[in-house]
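Run: sequence + zinc ion -> complex structure.
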Amino acid sequence: MTDINKRCKKCDKVLVRDEIAIYLKLVNRGAKEYLCIPCLAEYFKCSEDVIHERIKQLRDMGCTLFS
Ligand SMILES: [Zn+2]
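>> structure
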């Protein structure tokens, strides 16, 4: 994967694959820059738990963006 060492565009945290995948899924499918989960939660004005739950749901549904 070329996703290694991608960083959150807001706080510069190194992102894990799920964080990139959920950003693509929820925000912008063609994104080249991403947010980490804490920053994404702030962006959506929701809790991080909501985002973790959404990742889990999408993975359970077999979404190809999630490993
Ligand atoms: Zn961040």
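>> summary
Residues 8, 10-11, 13, 35-36, 38-39 surround zinc ion (CB under 6 Å). The chain has a mean pLDDT of 92.
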